[in-house]
Amino acid sequence: LPAVVLVAALMPFAWGLGLASAAAIVTFRRGTGLIGAGTTLLGFASGAFFPLALLPAWIAAIAEWNPLAIAIEGVRSALAGGGYPVGDLAVVAALSALTLAAGVWLFRLALSRERRLGTLGLY
Description:
Blueprint: H1 2-28, H2 32-44, H3 57-63, H4 67-79, H5 86-117
Helix pairs in contact: 1-4, 1-5, 4-5
């Protein structure tokens, strides 16, 4: 149950990133390369593929605030019997809420810009 709760708390983070990338695509009519690069960096700095101790120090510093890395470590701890990761859950939930709010704001900003310019119907 603790692992499921932690993964559920991570979902709004992905939604916020999706909304922010949709805002970039609506505004610039491109963005798949940037989205792919950002996703790769998040995955690479999460510790899911390589132990963070083997990576450069600046990536390990980024991973301390990477919600994906925090969630992975919390799920590992919960599944290994380490108890309920309350600290990890609080950080992931806060970063998810912040990312979702930023994504909604950016998407609204992009839509209002396109409506103002009259280019929303070009899709």
